[in-house]
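TICKET #2291
ISSUE: user wants both folds in one file
ATTACHMENT 1:
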Amino acid sequence: MEVKAPRRKAVRVTSEIVPPIVAEPELAPRRPLFRVQPGPVVIIALVIFGLIFLGAVFAEVLQLHKPDDKDLLSRFKPPFWEEKTKPGYPLGTDNLGRDVYSQILHGTRASLVVAFIAPTIALFIGLPLGLLAGFLGGLFDKIVMRLVDIWLAFPFIVLAIVIIGVVGPTLFSVAIVLGFGYWAAYARISRGEVLAARRRDYIIAAEALGVPRLRIIFRHILPNISSSLIVLWTFLMAVSILAESGLSFIGLGIKSPGISLGGMLNDGRGLLEKAWWFPVFPGIVISLLVISVNIIGDWLRDIYDPTVKK
């Protein structure tokens, strides 16, 4: 019996080339400006601090009168929304007829100068000591930590009062004294962070490979503890504002003709009944500065902390 082979279907050959299907490339997601987006509270804090900072920087441009100009005929003029006010004095006048608004602008500048200088001095003194104490250990670590314990056990505000009373209450003397007073906080925080970082695998591997110690400290350890240092810097910035205001309030801060927010509180503490606005407005500015700086510091910590994802 003859078996027929199955017929093959004819295939039509054409010269047309079907182009391959290429998927459209997906656009890369836009990288946010900040790794951790600021929330409404942070935005409000940034706006408040920015306005206060700009007002202090451009005080000469924004002032309506010179802060030390006296007009005895305009004493105790209330703010603009009350009756019997006088044009040109939006926040009223003090017992000497000086413009409260212009004094706040210049007083805020003095407080911010102290707030920036004091934590920076503490950073440059305490951070190297803490880094070396945590990394080297041994006798050097014990000496530094005993000095820190002694310094923190002593009431620093008493020492600051004595030193400022001897050298004189000026803007930079207050800033320098406060800066020397805060170095122990940086030394202790940085030392603890270094001890925690040294147990990590990449630090142990770098030491095993013979990487120089200074390179390990500044290249591998310091960037990973920056979030704690930033929070401490902003915290000490707020503390410096309060400390300067407290020293000026008791008469050991910036003296006349210099102006500070604490000095305005000192001048107006006996005028609450006659001119409540004179001590109240500087107190409000101090509160807004301290709160906004702390909020911004927490936000910066989240930005530079690699463990925070969103």
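ATTACHMENT 2:
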Amino acid sequence: LRDKTDQAAAWYIGAPDDEDAHAFALLLDLTSPSPEHDAAAQDALAWFAHSAMPQQNPSPVAALALGLFDVLHLPMPDAAHTVAATLEGTPFDGRKPASDDLRKLADAASQPARKGEALLRVLDIVGPTGPAGLSPDVTVECVRTLQQLGLTKEARALAIEALASARP
């Protein structure tokens, strides 16, 4: 996708209307925002919101996509924002740190003098293999923490990598 979003988008022309295609539309918007990508992202978020209603047993990719756009404070349809808030904190399968580690992350992130510690805790949670396989709720919390620390560019980069490595 790097600097070649138009070429990458051409691969998905005529793709089935499925989770993978909608996740790709969100990736395009995260990597290269434009009016066209923004419109496609809004459609994808609405699709995820519809498919991720809590009573429908939402997929981890839907929870991740909605949660990431929500914590990055990116435009979302009202229904998508509502579903993202409903799914917040919902446990999903995937790699998870000990609950104590998440508490320590929250404590460090809440104190400006501990910004470095909070960043190191995020890196420790994401681990050397990156966000692939991390539980969506944990990934969203790490992105939220980076945003809270003022590391917006890094939060977006983690969101891109997480969504790119998510598997339906």
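RESOLUTION: both attachments delivered.
EXTRA DETAIL ON ATTACHMENT 2: DSSP finds nine helices and no strands in the chain.
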